[in-house]
Amino acid sequence: MKKIQFAVLAGAFFVMLNSANVFAQTDTAGSTAMGAPTAKSARAANRQLAKKVRQALTAAKPAIPMEEIVVLAKKGAVSLVGEVESQDQSDLAAKVAQGVAGVASVNNQLSIGERGE
User: Vertex 87, ends 83 and 91: CA angle to 5°?
Assistant: First the structure.
């Protein structure tokens, strides 16, 4: 039941983050104004940043179990959603995420509880 609630929560949060997509204005020639990134390149950058944060969390010492953590990124803002076993793991996850190049802010929404319930 918790896994279903987690999936629904993560899905809802992802939809909320992506509902504010802003597309670059284009001039008459079809190029983006002032070299602004396209929506496609912005999404790719967001995915890449989330991947770098997941890799950093996986490599953290002591280990942070990633089975129930979702990492979302948008324009340098990273959100950690899910569940960890202790406040120490939650704090470490936020600290590690903040240390990744390209991360401007971390929204730590990790809850504390026994994994697997």
Answer: 95
